[in-house]
Amino acid sequence: MKSTSDTMPPTVAATSSVTVVSGGVGAARFLTGLLNVIDPAKVTAVVNTGDDTQLHGLSISPDLDTITYTLAGATDPERGWGLRNETWTAMAALQRFEAVRPNGSAAATRWFNLGDQDLATHFYRTARLTEGASLTEVTEEITTAWGLGLRLVPMTDERRTTVVTTATEGDVSFQDYFVRLRHSVPITSVRFDGVAQLSQSARFALTNAEIVVIAPSNPLVSIGPIRSLDGTDDILSARRDSVVAVSPIVGGAALKGPAARMMTELGHESSVVGVARLYAGIASALVIDPADAHLVDAVVAEGMRCIVTPSVMSTPEIAQTLGEVTIAAVSAP
Amino acid sequence: MKSTSDTMPPTVAATSSVTVVSGGVGAARFLTGLLNVIDPAKVTAVVNTGDDTQLHGLSISPDLDTITYTLAGATDPERGWGLRNETWTAMAALQRFEAVRPNGSAAATRWFNLGDQDLATHFYRTARLTEGASLTEVTEEITTAWGLGLRLVPMTDERRTTVVTTATEGDVSFQDYFVRLRHSVPITSVRFDGVAQLSQSARFALTNAEIVVIAPSNPLVSIGPIRSLDGTDDILSARRDSVVAVSPIVGGAALKGPAARMMTELGHESSVVGVARLYAGIASALVIDPADAHLVDAVVAEGMRCIVTPSVMSTPEIAQTLGEVTIAAVSAP
């Protein structure tokens, strides 16, 4: 993969390798900042694939693609997801088939919107997986095609699927909950079905990086699936001193998405203290926003060091500083 | 399915049911004319699926779609294939992945051009097949969605695949030969791999229609795959008196595509006489163009009645008359 270190001299931790445990949008923004302060060739993101789904015969990996498109600078700035200058011709043409689809069929599903350019990524991934390539291999090819400097590795090469139990519709897939139901229904549990095996690359990256960062992603449905794999929590707890988490909860609310609501519904406190309780066993430090500065003592009481720095990544500068401070939190002085 | 008989009074054979053994473009044009003179609800097309292929994870049925789009009036009039006002965004975006595709991989294949609107058909078909629907069922849903009045049935619900042995590249799929190699390389044989089982609907339509028409399609790679299925030739030869073929060869050349060249390369005479030799066992009459009127006796010598009428379907009127004359050729007086 191409390194961008020639043009962007790292300002901190020049020799540290960093693994970032990642969901989608929040992790992508965090990584954007981090890659401005550290050689991208030193960074590996271990990415949630619990949201992965099959639609129209295509293998779709939302978090991998969100990070890829974001770091490639290709994301639509208005929508915040999907590709810039995207068109939706194929999806629109699918409408014709809604009337003939039998009851219970998921064919012609249009609530999961796939743009025409975006489709090429799914075509490539699906074709390569059909040919027998692993998701790890395909992801490396896709990120190379998009010119990324860091390494993205899926948490697993197997199927490990997030299932959300809703109060109104019973068990649904994560995308059903997140996109179709717009994460607006009460939930009673989250579980992970399938094979609980970390990919070899993910295991290596979690074990051997000098620093591990848990990105500001949803602790339950973005970081949770990765933690549900055999070995993840053991690896991280054994190296807890060099693991730092960034809270996705600021002032009791989520930076993005349903994290706060989900935490409350599943019996966790929707605060940086609730986050600290979830992560204290696997990380030694928690980065929180000044909005939560009054909770530092409570975080410390959970057994974590607490670093206060702006974490609402509304500008590139804030994201970059957040990256610097986060790495410094677990770096040798 | 919707019948259009209210608005288009049939002018011939009002009570006859007709099955048309069909390839792609030639059959589609023939059917367009036929449906102007016979109640579409009486017409079934048994369609070649030997060209069907998998690309990007999608199940693609070129001949079924060519007929569907043509009869729906949705085909691009300039290109002669694909949809009107089509765009090609997804295919263009696939180019990014060509550089990272490993040697030998078929991912990011772009020589088989899939338009953005066209993709919706493949999405629907693939999703329904994945759900366990048969190709027959899916095809009925797709043709209903496109408002077709006739019934299209795939020749088989199994995989039956046309393999072309070329002089230069050995065995290739039909699409490889036809699209990628632009049917411009010499071939030494054609064979059909897979399961040789007629679909139930195809068998019923071939057996029970009052009239069977062999459309002006390529005898070797459009009609050939249908004839390669167990029972087809037995059914047709047993009812030979009510089977009529329309020659796809006019003046020694093909109406469209590589039929003439293929016939010559595979040891057949590229003429209506060569066509008669291929069909004499299963059809009692052959419709030929006035350009070949001097060959009537030679066709008759092969054991077929010979009807001369314009068969180059350059206008809707010619296609309609061709339909009338063809049906009349095997209708009771």
Descriptive tags:
homodimer; 333 residues; alpha/beta; Rossmann fold; seven-stranded parallel beta sheet; three-stranded antiparallel beta sheet; 35% helix; globular; disordered N terminus
Can you describe what's shown?
The structure is a homodimer of 333-residue chains. Chain A has 333 residues and is of the alpha/beta class. Chain A has one domain (4-328): CofD-like domains (Rossmann fold, 3-Layer(aba) Sandwich), CATH 3.40.50. Helix content of chain A is 35%, strand content 18%. In chain A, the strands form four sheets. Chain A has a seven-stranded parallel sheet with strand order 5-2-1-9-10-13-14, with helices on both faces. Chain A has a three-stranded antiparallel sheet with strand order 7-6-8. In chain A, helix 1 links the parallel strand 1 and strand 2 (43-47). In chain A, helix 4 (116-130) packs antiparallel against helix 5. The model of chain A is unreliable at 1-10 (pLDDT under 50). The interface between A and B is large, with 43 and 43 residues.
